[in-house]
Design goal:
The chain has about 375 residues and is an alpha+beta fold. Helix content is about 20%, strand content about 30%. The strands form 4 sheets. Strands 2, 3, 4, 5, 6, 7, 8, 9 and 10 form a 9-stranded antiparallel β-sheet that branches. Strands 1-17-14-19-12-11 form a 6-stranded antiparallel β-sheet. It has a 3-stranded antiparallel β-sheet with strand order 16-15-18, with no helix packed on it. A hairpin with a 2-residue loop joins β5 (about 130-145) and β6.
């Protein structure tokens, strides 16, 4: 039995940390404990209660040029009806990521390509989902009878427990989007359910785009029906409006030293995140922006909406360009740099709502050396 016989971190030598030297009598005691499905806590304490978070995930990047070709190939290999959802899953470059199908921490992500006339059969699940549209035209989703049209760089919600299906109109274009779900969290909680609709697709029971038209302006209609659901009624956040809002923010504010100009996709009824377990942001890095380093609890997955640059994540430089996807694991120093003469835009989604609900969302800025971390050789 592997036991914690001596401290491996000098800090563990102080009172309050486990630093036990095993004896023959203790080893006999451990053997007796194991026969009763038990163990001595001090053998595990320092490992399961680290001084600070230690992510098991690694910074990982998925190049869109490569992933797009793979998604398009999948179209000819399997139908969405047979696949249920024809998604190419993004796996973190780590043992735990490959074992758990997590892109990073509690988050799942994948790329879905659909050609004109195709549908993804209607279904629902406990896991929440959201999507960032990367290219195409004529795409749509139907969520609990609400049909919503989708355009490039739009951000759309598929909240947990809602019936939903997706498609591309017959006169549309090949469409590709990034899916994000909290499947790892729901499976860890052993709370994931899945159900299939009794028809291949829903029949829309409301006017097309009724929810974004009613709630997406930033003004609330006085005659609105009571909205008692725990997610945003906007449902889709249009790229044109998001880009315009970032431009206006930049006119009258100095950029954040870490993230440039950043906006939250929020629930207009609460001002909080659009959904309960996953949040999302769009940020703009000004021309030649060089961010300073910070870290936080919670995991973030980025999609480059526009521009080119690099991010230094845990001392590892990751160069990116349009629609490359990369992740920042929890409590890992990171900073972003815009290498272009124009603004760069980064879409991202995260598990911050969970961190906030549990009271464990913490952010720390790197001090000294102008707030920048060193790159690994």
């Amino acid at each position: 039995m592997a036991t914690q016989t001596e401290a491996t971190d000098p800090r563990d030598l102080q009172l309050g940390r486990s630093n036990v030297t095993d004896t023959p009598e203790l080893e006999a005691f451990y053997k007796e404990l194991s026969g009763h499905n038990s163990d001595a806590f001090w053998n595990r304490a320092n490992a399961i209660e680290p001084w600070e978070p230690e992510s098991r995930y690694r910074p990982t990047i998925w190049r869109y040029a490569t992933m797009r070709e793979l998604c398009v190939r999948a179209i000819d290999l399997v139908s969405p009806e047979k696949a249920g959802r024809r998604v190419v899953t993004l796996l973190n470059d780590s043992e735990v990521g490959r074992a758990s199908t997590a892109v990073c921490g509690w988050l799942f992500s994948g790329l879905q390509a659909m050609k004109p006339g195709e549908i993804t059969p209607a279904h629902r699940h406990t896991a929440s989902a959201h999507r960032f549209i990367m290219e195409g035209g004529g795409a749509y989703t139907v969520v609990d009878g609400h049909k919503i049209t989708l355009g490039k760089h739009d951000y759309v919600l598929t909240p947990n427990g809602t019936w939903h299906d997706h498609g591309v109109s017959a006169d549309g274009e090949l469409s590709i989007w990034q899916d994000g779900l909290d499947i790892p969290l729901m499976n860890c909680l052993e709370a994931n359910f899945y159900a299939v609709y009794d028809e291949p697709a829903q029949t829309a029971t409301f006017p097309t785009n009724d929810l974004p038209f009613s709630y997406g302006s930033g003004l609330l209609p006085e005659t609105r029906a009571a909205w008692d659901r725990p997610y945003s009624p906007v449902m889709v956040y249009r790229w044109e409006e998001t880009q315009d809002a970032l431009g206006k923010l930049a006119r009258v504010n100095a950029p954040c030293p870490h993230d440039g100009y950043m906006l939250r996709y929020s629930n207009p009824l609460t001002g909080g995140w659009a959904m309960k377990t996953m949040g999302a942001n769009m940020q703009m890095l000004p021309s030649m922006f060089r961010g300073t380093a910070h870290r936080h609890t919670g995991n973030v997955v980025y999609n480059v909406a526009q521009g080119r640059g690099y991010s230094n994540i845990g001392g590892q430089r990751i160069d990116w360009e349009e629609h490359d996807i990369f992740c920042v694991p929890a409590w890992m120093w990171h900073e972003h740099v815009n290498l272009g003469g124009d603004e760069a835009y980064l879409f991202s989604f995260n598990d911050f709502p969970v961190m906030e609900a549990l009271g464990v969302r913490i952010t720390e800025a790197l001090e000294g050396n102008d707030g920048r971390q060193a790159l690994q050789a």
